[in-house]
């Protein structure tokens, strides 16, 4: 294990780290890093990769061979751009993929229909298009604050417990039939036209359900796409501004630590 969390490291992650073939855990979260190597493929024994709360920009690596043992990938609160690599969702042992609060764009990879991950967090990005059928193992899903369109997604399994789809452009009826383990549902600020079906769901286990502003009836049957995008863009900008303020505060703290060191 190599744990370097919450220091004042900056610049690029040295490529030499990717040559330690026996490394199982790499914690680089909570620093001021701005770039990572183009591949972690040589770290075939690694199970946990923590890159969150940095300033890493550019695209995510695309080389994630199926021989890797990765279980937990957490790279949220960075500035990654580009699309989500399909190979990430195809890792055979993946359990958690957390890429929220980045600048990722494009559509959701079709591989999300077959991923082994039970936790998928991709909130506060710039993802577009419809949501593919979601894999049967997914238990916790957060796709909020994107630009996703289309109808309520299809869940291949019934073990999902958390569904967060707030602040997108989704529409049509909501179908929660068979999802008896649901405990959290947030579908606020969309264009859904029906309430969730709570038949078979124990109200004792459903502890959070946010439906606010989801059931708006748009003018002329479909509403103005331009108005929807403008509304979503304003919401995303508010989220970005909060993140910029947080990053500025973190940078000031790091600068103060450097000066006192």
Q: What layout of secondary structure does this protein have?
A:
Layout (H helix, E strand, L loop, with lengths): L1 E2 L6 E3 L12 E3 L4 E4 L12 E3 L6 E3 L12 E3 L4 E4 L3 H4 L6 E3 L4 E5 L11 E3 L4 E4 L10 E3 L4 E4 L11 E3 L4 E4 L11 E3 L4 E2 L15 E3 L14 H36 L1
Parallel strand pairs: 1-3, 2-4, 3-5, 5-7, 6-8, 7-9, 8-10, 9-11, 10-12, 11-13, 12-14, 13-15, 14-16, 15-17, 16-18, 17-19
Based on CA atoms alone, the radius of gyration comes out at: 20 Å
Share of helix among residues? 10-25%
User: What summary fits the major beta sheet?
Assistant: 10 strands, parallel
Sheet with the most strands: spatial strand order: 1-3-5-7-9-11-13-15-17-19
Any overview of this molecule?
The protein has helices at residues 86-89, 225-260; strands spanning 2-3, 10-12, 25-27, 32-35, 48-50, 57-59, 72-74, 79-82, 96-98, 103-107, 119-121, 126-129, 140-142, 147-150, 162-164, 169-172, 184-186, 191-192, 208-210. It is built from two helices and 19 strands.
Which terms would index this structure?
single chain, 261 residues, alpha/beta, ten-stranded parallel beta sheet, seven-stranded parallel beta sheet, 2 helices, globular
Brief digest:
By secondary structure, the chain is α/β, with parallel strands linked by helices. It has two helices and 19 strands. The chain starts with a strand and ends with a helix.
């Amino acid at each position: 294990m190599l744990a370097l969390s919450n220091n004042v490291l900056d610049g690029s992650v040295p490529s030499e780290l990717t040559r330690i073939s026996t490394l199982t855990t790499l914690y680089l979260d909570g620093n001021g890093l701005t770039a990572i190597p183009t591949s972690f493929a040589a770290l075939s024994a690694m199970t946990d990769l923590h890159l969150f709360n940095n300033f890493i920009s550019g695209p995510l690596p695309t080389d994630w061979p199926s021989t890797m043992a990765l279980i937990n990938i957490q790279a949220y609160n960075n500035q990654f751009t580009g699309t989500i690599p399909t190979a990430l969702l195809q890792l055979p042992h993946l359990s958690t993929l957390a890429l929220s609060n980045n600048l990722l764009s494009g559509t959701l990879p079709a591989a999300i229909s077959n991923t082994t991950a039970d936790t998928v967090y991709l909130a506060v990005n710039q993802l577009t298009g419809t949501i593919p059928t979601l894999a049967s193992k997914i238990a916790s899903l957060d796709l909020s604050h994107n630009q996703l369109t289309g109808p309520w997604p299809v869940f291949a399994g019934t073990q999902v417990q958390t569904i967060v789809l707030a602040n997108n452009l989704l529409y049509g009826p909501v179908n929660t039939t068979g999802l008896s383990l649901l405990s959290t549902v947030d579908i606020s600020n969309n264009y859904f036209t029906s309430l969730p079906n709570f038949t078979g769901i124990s109200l004792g286990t459903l502890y959070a359900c946010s439906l606010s502003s989801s059931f708006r009836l748009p003018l002329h049957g479909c509403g103005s796409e331009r108005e929807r995008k403008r509304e979503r863009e304003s919401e995303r900008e508010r989220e970005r501004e909060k993140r910029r303020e947080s990053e500025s505060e973190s940078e000031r703290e790091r600068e103060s630590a450097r000066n006192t060191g």
